[in-house]
Write a structure and sequence with these properties.
The chain is an all-alpha fold. About 75% of the residues lie in helices and about 0% in strands. α2 packs antiparallel against α4. It is globular. The termini are far apart.
């Protein structure tokens, strides 16, 4: 129960990411020239998520491996999750795999990790 207590928001945020990324293309609002906004949004949601994961993993003590290796596990998990969601977009109507989205997801993960270091380690 302690794990869920410290990671509930991270779990919910991850589910929200999946919902938004896998939403059929025709359900998405038109972006027009807002391609930059899309890229920044990808980076932002993954930045917030990896920060939540690291903090949640560090606070919980149910799974000691996660506690001690929170940063590594959160970074790898978030990057693989982002890649999986991009691949799953093939099954979503009107959506496609985009390398740029995967790159921005990864940039967001690294920014979230750097933010964690700035807040908690410096």
């Amino acid at each position: 129960m302690e794990f869920v207590r410290y990671n509930l928001f991270g779990i919910l945020w991850g589910l929200l990411i999946a919902f938004l990324v896998l939403l059929p293309g025709q359900e998405m609002p038109p972006t027009g020239d807002l391609l930059l906004f899309d890229r920044v949004a990808h980076a932002f949601v993954f930045m917030v998520w990896v920060l939540m994961l690291i903090v949640g993993f560090r606070k919980q003590t149910t799974f000691l491996y996660l506690h001690y290796y929170a940063e590594r596990v959160a970074i790898v998990t978030a990057i693989l999750y982002g890649a999986l969601l991009e691949v799953l977009q093939f099954a979503s109507v009107g959506r496609t795999f985009e390398w740029e989205d995967l790159l921005m997801n990864t940039v967001g993960v690294l920014l979230g990790w750097m933010l964690f270091v700035l807040i908690y380690k410096l």
